[in-house]
Amino acid sequence: MIRAVKVPSPGVTPTQTAPTETGLHGRVLDHLGTAICGGELASGAVLNIDDLVDRYAVSRSVVREVLRVLASMGFIETRRRVGVMIRPAHHWNVFDPQVIRWRLASVGRIAQIRSITELRTAVEPHAAWLAAHRVDHDEASDLVGLAAKLWAAGKAGDEERFLSLDIEFHQRVLRASGNEMFVKLQDLVAEVLIGRHHYHLMPHYPHEQALQLHADVAQSIQRHDGETAREAMVQIMEHAFEEMSSIWEQGRPTGPAPESA
Hints:
- By secondary structure, this protein is mainly alpha-helical.
- The chain has helices spanning 23-38, 49-56, 60-72, 97-104, 109-134, 137-156, 159-176, 180-183, 186-198, 208-222, 226-250, and strands at 46-47, 76-79, 83-86.
- The protein has a three-stranded antiparallel beta sheet with strand order 1-3-2.
- GO terms for molecular function: DNA binding; DNA-binding transcription factor activity.
- Residues 22-89 form the HTH gntR-type domain.
């Protein structure tokens, strides 16, 4: 028998709510999205609109807008004589950056990181190869300069600057590929790198080999050497897998980074 599910109370959700939108709409959306991704609201459960209004102390219009967004992401559907039902995970828009943030904030964050790393391994080496054939002189020079800044930030242990530069580096390679579909993946790359940093899944000091490989990608693209650029990017992805492999094998949850003093 289908019955309405009790929505986890805000503030006592077992998973860490993803830091995304603010305001009433954003608070309810983030709480429900993270609860669905974390399994507290399971597939087949039915949400009661009046219960949501009471639980979150918001208007019906806010709840309806939240449900509209969740429906657009494939999380819920409205069934006649049943109500608003949670859909199975295979219906979710897993390429939506907000969905990625919620999955990273849930107990399934390791599986999310692994999925995107596998996607990056399939795409980014070929993006580097394309970039080597399509990039112009100024773009290539900027990429080499960016790799040098990335090296300096990594050696200095400046995690925030390294993260920002690393995101920019990989996004630039995707853009330089000239493939508009690859370019659309740049937000996913940013989310997983931010997530790895936020949940302490990256070393404080990047390995020197990883820094050198980023320089190799940039310099190979500048020389229009597609094969070497591809191979260097493959090694970057393999290195990321190696860093994460022990965590994947253990399957242990990892908490959010502690607040700065």
